[in-house]
Fold this protein.
Amino acid sequence: MGKYSDSTEWEDVDPIPQDDGGPNPLAAIAYTEEYSEAMSYLRAAMAKDEKSDRALGLTEDIIRMNPAHYTVWLYRADMLFTLQKDLLQELEWLNKISLKHIKNFQIWYPYHVPQAGKAEAYGLRRHHRQVVMSHIPTIPPTETAFLALMFAKDVKNYHVWSYRQWLVRQFSLWDSELPYVESLLQSDVRNNSAWNHRWFVIFARHMDPTKHSIKNGDADSEVPPEIIEREIEYTKAAISTAPQNQSPWNYLRGVLGKKGMGLVELKSFAEQYADLEKEDEVRSSHALDFLADVYAEEEQKERSGRALELLARRYDPIRKNYWNYRRSLLGLKQVGA
Amino acid sequence: MSLVSGPGRGGASTGHVPDEIKLVVEKHVEYIQTLDTRQDELEYWLTEHLRLNGVYWGLTALHLLGHPEALPRLATIDFVLSSQHESGGFGAAPGHDAHMLYTVSAVQILGTVDALEELDRRGKAGREKVGQYIADLQSQETGSFAGDEWGETDTRFLYGALNALSLLHMLHLVDIPKAVTYIQNCANFDGGYGVSPGAESHAGQIFTCVGALAIAGRLDLVDRDRLGGWLSERQLPNGGLSGRPEKLEDVCYSWWVASSLAMIDRLHWIDRDKLSQFILQCQDSEKGGIADRPGDMVDVFHTVFGLAGLSLIGFPGLVAVDPI
Ligand SMILES: [Zn+2]
């Protein structure tokens, strides 16, 4: 008795039950009935390489129960292309289950599922989406709205970001991305994913992905100087709203690296947030870190060492070994515990 | 190996944290041993697609705890071999398609129980074919590795491929310089590495990139000070490590972050005592198992990475682990 065994649509098929590897196996499988039945029909359909509407429906059913089962996704994608299905319709279905999955994760997975299982489900949907999308010539107008909904749930979801970058490359969406990134940073200036994406749309577009040239410190003559200046100004403004925020400080170092001019030009900017003479008023440990490098660039070893000492002793003591290492590079002795 | 989580929760029993918490070795061994008796739970089949990984995690945890015998060796080998395909690749469990991740897990498990030659003796395909299956997933164009014939690439697959091939002594089957170039393309402006060129730095991906470079003998390409600075910055005031800036701490990053630091000789840049305190607070000291953070359900994934983290920082009572 079951959904498939009772259906006339599937009566020509002999389900193939799970072969769990012999008596008392290490990982014998205990399925609930509904899932187990659906899986036995899936095995039967796959065994004869069936490509049909009913098999598509079957994969949909199994994905509903277990979105982290990769075999079923592969089979489904294969059928979609063979049967020349409407891919926009597939996307629509994918949107629906993706959003539902985020919203009702506890319904899909009544117990807490290991993080890896959850991540796997995300990864498989993203991959399926990418496979489908790469067969569509122009980006469907609904796509950005869908991504906005996904980000509304979790704006740091690594899979969604990775998909978004793929999409930008695939459809060459470089110009429309920047305003979007700015709106994200406007609502949360600490969103490191958005800072990374900013870097991607501005600098990675100038990069030949087959050549190694993205690393910080490689001065890049292909990026116009006015863009470099604009990025420096933008980042300074972002730091002024929240000085103790590592993302823009990292970004600033990256941009200065692209410029190839060192950090010294931003010395007075950084000193606003960390004055070595006023130890109690330091507003940013990242400014201290930045200034330590500025002073070292200027051969002011003692000042540089003083900034590192403040970090080791007071502003970031959990990493005192790191700061002491930086002092040792200057030939200075360790700061005690 | 079941990936069912719970029943216990990490450190939930007492609100108050004693100054010195003990590692409950015997409890963790029992916890892992009982995982496979829980096949009547819904979550058991929902995580079937991870089963082979689960076996690897459980097995590794038992080795770290000094009880490698707690999982029956022959049954383990039988289960691994029953997931193999003629192509040489392995699925997550019998009846699942072959995929890079499970093939890597299979090789790692067989390597751990010293049974790689069983592939030649009674596998559906021998060592040579397994190595070839992995090697064929390398892209000639970019040097990266796909997870399966569908071509999704991820630095996880690249690391897994090199790790398994080095266990099989078959690194010569792949183009190492091309793979190395691909990893360099994943390096970011902040000193970290992402899942693909341009993707945000992430501690898990850093582990795979640095691990792959270590196997390739090209750690000279890493800016150790900058990467070490980024990695050590992941430690939060409670001692736990996070995977990215502005994200919460999680026990599994104890492994990804700390082992990456160890590979570049910068492990002492984090506060090891604080980290071990954090991990110990995540264990269920009554029923065994470790959770992602205090108060959450324990599971085998966080148990193994918590133990591996503790072992790496030299916590007494555990077998020493190799960071790669
Ligand atoms: Zn975790």
